[in-house]
TrEMBL record:
GO terms for molecular function: hydrolase activity. InterPro entries: B_lactamase-like_C (IPR048933), Metallo-B-lactamas (IPR001279), RibonucZ/Hydroxyglut_hydro (IPR036866), Sec-metab_biosynth-thioest (IPR050662), WH-like_DNA-bd_sf (IPR036388). The lineage of its organism: Bacteria, Pseudomonadati, Pseudomonadota, Betaproteobacteria, Burkholderiales. This is Glyoxylase-like metal-dependent hydrolase (Beta-lactamase superfamily II). Keywords: Hydrolase. Pfam families: B_lactamase-like_C, Lactamase_B. Residues 42-269 form the Metallo-beta-lactamase domain.
Length: 356
């Protein structure tokens, strides 16, 4: 546990549910933990005891990527963890593959097609998922991503070729989406299991991230907006090449600063914790420090995003990690640029560089 983690309270200590087995964390709330084939090797998913139109059952929050092993874990959940009751709806916090990848399959009742239920999410997340799954958007791979990162200093042809071959990265993990959905918006109140859960939208990490707060029980399902151990990835990708996602993210954090400090935060990665205001302060300090480093570097000489990556990430990165590291470096550069603290020029080599 690092120094910052010592400032937080982990009520379940080192408890980690076995894949396919639910763990009770709050009244009517169960924690599932599924594996991921990345350096970030897991995702937390949630089961909420529910009743819709008089029928007893469960709301599923987030799904995991499309993968046979994760399907097998879900089948175990369906058979042994739901008390013989059906899933009534599937709620997805945002469009990233580890959250929405299996939504179509769970909505359809798994391999045995046990039920046919609706996906609930925000307009921004559903439409973004549709675009990315169709192959019309790239972000993490494909020719568009290669051109985008080349403009920002990735000149190694082997790396660019790797990016090009990742053009089906999203659609491999999200091969289908439910053809219909129910829209959620900021401040919507959902009745789940007789309790009010308020939608808290957030921006910067994804287009219109949906977290859920139950003030009656003091529980926040934070998705990826507030994580205990790592900072949320905030990236500029090729779909919005002049975006300012870090500004959006930092603004969104203000919606969590009014929550009670003893709120039980259920994050998508890491362990449940208490200390939401403390964690927000840590995240703000983290980004303030990174922005100061970037500004100082650009004051010494013009910097492209590829120059900034080793300043912010002092470890070896694989291609999956590099795409997010480049996006994060650009997010910090863009906040400073759009705030008037940096200027942006395109050099003779075609690379965009920033100067103080």
């Amino acid at each position: 546990m690092n120094a910052l983690e010592h400032q937080l309270d982990y009520p379940f200590a080192d408890t980690l549910p076995e894949a396919g087995v639910a763990f009770d964390v709050a009244p009517g709330v169960k924690w599932l933990r599924m594996p991921l084939p990345f350096v970030l090797d897991h995702i937390n998913l949630w089961l909420l005891r529910d009743e819709i139109d008089g029928q007893q059952g469960w709301t599923v929050v987030d799904c995991g990527i499309t993968d046979d092993s994760i399907k097998a874990h879900w089948e175990r959940v369906f058979d042994t963890q739901l008390e013989g009751l059906p899933v009534l709806r599937v709620l997805v916090t945002h469009c990233h593959p580890d959250h929405i990848g299996l939504a179509h399959w769970i909505c359809a009742g798994g391999d045995q097609q046990r039920w046919d239920v609706r996906l609930w999410t925000t307009l921004g997340e559903y439409m973004s998922a549709c675009v990315l799954a169709s192959g019309n958007g790239s972000n993490a791979g494909g020719e568009g991503a290669a051109r985008h990162f080349a403009r920002h200093g990735v000149t190694d042809e082997a790396s660019l070729d790797q990016l090009r071959t990742r053009r089906n990265y999203y659609s491999n993990l999200v091969p289908a989406l439910p053809p219909q959905y129910r829209r959620l918006r900021e401040a919507d109140v959902m009745k789940i299991g007789g309790r009010d859960w308020r939608v808290v939208t957030g921006f910067g990490h994804s287009p219109e991230h949906c977290a859920l707060l139950c003030e009656q029980t003091g529980v926040l399902i934070s998705g990826d907006m507030v994580l205990p151990r790592i900072s949320t990835n905030v990236s500029v990708f090729d779909m919005e090449p002049e975006g300012n996602p870090l500004d959006l993210y930092l603004e969104s954090l203000g919606r969590y600063e009014t929550m009670a400090e003893d709120t039980l935060v259920l994050p998508s990665h890491g362990k449940p914790f208490r200390g939401v205001r403390t964690r927000i302060a840590q995240l703000r300090e983290h980004h303030d420090a990174r922005l100061a480093e970037v500004l100082e570097a650009c004051a010494s000489k013009p910097q492209c995003a590829a120059d900034i990556v080793p300043l912010m990430f002092r470890r070896k990165l694989d291609m999956h990690q590099l795409t997010f590291a480049m996006g994060e470096a650009l997010a910090h550069l863009h906040l400073l640029w759009l705030d008037g603290k940096l200027t942006r020029t395109t050099s003779e080599d075609g690379v965009i560089r920033f100067s103080a």
